[in-house]
Amino acid sequence: MQQSSIHILDRDNGQTFIYYEDAVENLTNRDLHPMKHYLRKRMHLIRHGAYDKTPTE
User: Fold this and answer.
1) Please, which domain of life does this record's source organism belong to (predicted)?
2) How many domains, in total, are found in the chain?
3) How far apart are the first and last CA of the chain?
4) Residues of the domain holding 9
């Protein structure tokens, strides 16, 4: 089974981080809840073609 992942660029230091869907789901620290929500929302949009270069019908 292929795992969904998202690449996040940190604009402050130019470093790219890779987050995998199962790792995001396992975040339990309350301080990281906003990041978990953000990543889940971005993964949902990517999965449904929101950032595709060609229009989807």
Assistant:
1) Bacteria
2) 1
3) 26
4) 5-47
